[in-house]
Amino acid sequence: MRLLIDYGNTLIKIALYRDDELLDAQMFKEISAGRLKQLVGEIETKHNFDDSIHEVLLSAVKDIPEDLYSFLSDSFDFYRLDHKTPVPIRIKYDTPETLGHDRIALAVAGSGLFPNENVLVIDAGTCITYDFINKNKEYLGGGISPGILMRFRALHNFTGKLPLIKHFEDTGLLGSTTKNSIVSGVLNGVRAEVDNIIDRYINEYSVSRVLFTGGDMIYFDKKLKNNIFANSNLVFVGLNMILNYNVGH
Question: Which of 80, 104, 125 is the C-terminal boundary of a domain?
């Protein structure tokens, strides 16, 4: 069995895999070495398998605590994803050392799930990222724009009276209060933006498949005019493919 860790800007997500089967997935706002050690034991007991966790792959968009890193590197066959990690696609980004590790994982997932197709992967989280992988397994780049919560914060921080929206429901097009007007403007604006960008990738790069993931995926699924393939665990799918590729090599 193997453990995959997606150490993001907002949340820390972990997943337990056996071969290509996702067995367990959890998320935390923070986690210590002691808590992770306890959690590993709980997971192994819960699933009651004869084997235990051997390999660990860490994808981190920021520095992790030293004690956590030491626990992982000392206790497991440990891999850390960076721009030098062997992956089953060709990274043709001009500055690969600046490429987010989550974006690498998503590109690998897109290419692996839909080989021989031009694929666009969209991740709606803290930021909204667009990543394009062509049918030749070449990652060529994409785009980064502010996520939904970031847009709410910008409206509050750069105006004198607009409130900060933290909890909201989809209000449709016509907002009848200031809060609802903000929600309408942000959600409908970001959906229009995403639909337009998808259209451009289809027209300019012959994209035949659009994958969607991320914590804010629910605000886009079935709300876009373009057809999308939604998968909330797409980063883990890519990380598992990368680990398979490295263990096999």
Answer: 80
CATH assignment of the domain containing 126? 3.30.420.40
Residue 49 domain boundaries: 2-80
**What does DSSP say about strands 90-91 and 138-146: parallel, antiparallel, or unpaired?**
parallel
CA atoms within 13 A on the CB side of 218: 4
pLDDT in tens, 58-76: 998 888 889 899 999 998 9
In a domain, 239, yes or no: no
The long-range contacts involving 47-53, CB below 8 angstroms and separated by at least 24 positions, are 47/16, 47/23, 49/1, 49/18, 51/1, 52/1, 53/1, 53/2, 53/3, 53/16
Structure-block tokens of residue 5 = 């860790």
Residues 96 and 163 in one domain: yes
Separation of alpha carbons 103 and 95, rounded Å:
13
Q: Does one domain contain both 94 and 190?
A: yes
Name the residues annotated as catalytic. Answer: 102
131 contacts: CB under 8 Å, gap ≥ 6: 103, 106, 107, 110, 120, 121, 122, 123, 139, 141, 142
Q: What does the pLDDT look like over 202-226, one tens digit per residue?
A: 999 999 999 999 999 999 999 999 9
Rounded to whole angstroms, the Cα distance separating 238 from 245 reads 11
Q: Does residue 49 have a pLDDT over 70? A: no
> Does 175 share its domain with 229?
yes
